[in-house]
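This part of the workshop introduces the protein records we will be handling. A learned vocabulary of local backbone shapes supplies the integers on the structure line. Getting from the letters to the tokens is the skill we practise here. As an example, a complete record with its sequence and its structure tokens follows.
=====
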Amino acid sequence: MLFAGFFIWHSVVYAQQQRFPRPEFEGGYTFPEHQFLNQRGPLWEYMDVAVLVLTLLATSWMVLKKRSRQGLIWISLFSLAYFGFYREGCICAVGSVQNMSLALFNADYAIPFSALLFFIIPLIAALLFGRVFCAGVCPLGAIQELTGFRQVRVPKSVEKVLASIPFVYLGLAVLFAATGSEFLICRFDPFVGIFRVNAPYTMIIFGSLLLIVGIFINRPYCRYLCPYGVLQNIFSRFSMKHVTVTPAECRNCRLCESGCPYDAILQSDPPASREIKRDTKKGSLPYLLLIPVLAAGFAVILYNTAPALSGVNGKVRLAREIRLEKEEGVKAVSKAAVAFFESGKTEDELFGEEQQIAARFRKGAPWVGIFLGLALGIGLFRLTVRKIRTDYEPDRGRCFSCAKCFKFCPVKIKD
């Protein structure tokens, strides 16, 4: 009955998709067509969802029950073949962030049901089992995981700075999609060019460079760029079950310290330092009070940068080009300007649309600032307050559940 209800609801949404045109964003970029799913019937879309669910369950089983790194590699190969090369990188949970944003803030866009499921299901899996989607299901992660042959540790200070980039990327991607301006994640998808072979050479070069870097610094896109990884990080911190370094009681042998290429293993606190760490909790109050200050400060900063950010929108750029010709005599020669002059549309209509879009940016940009301020403030606060650790354990947010640490632990599963 539940499946039948989903199918009927999806048929209605699918009909709406045909009624409403795809969002058209200017800029000369051809978006991945499969992300909008007009080419495949509903049953084929459900096939993709079914494969997603099965691979998530298989990955969870391999990581939590079997504790098999080899099994995880085979699942990664399948995901890379199916979601990467067969489905050409779409539909993808990473890109679905944009579909969700566009649907939430634009009444004339009906999100495909399968895109909605691709956004939600991996997050539910993260709440249940940790970042199993990143471990073996995401094709972007799989292609990097299979090329990470060497391990070079990034200094912790540099790691923390680079790890903040995905938060900014996510905020801007949501803002640009919500205002109908740009599908930023699709534009800079590093591996879709490799999956499709015939993409612009710049995309192939970008993806190839990431893979080369990934030989030494494992999963550079996942760690320092992926916007969906931010959501996976947050949801995984509240997971019911999560991968552990050891299948049984930790012996604190320290053999696993160098086993994680992502520096996601949290060390055990020596008995002598546990009282000291309890005393440091008293100094956490200023950092707690700093959270709303940072949120307000970033909101003001983003509000003031909204006019500049709105320039991403093609209509805003066109309006500014036309105004420049009108006020300073600089002739508008872009393709968009030529098309505008031939369309019969008035300048007042164009300038009115520009004001509407700019107003949407002014409304949305402060919320992005609040998100960034909260993320930074909470991150600083977490550095001052944490529980005392008696075992080596993974950081639930940063751990990719890749199972590389298993081979370093001398404690084995008892049959």
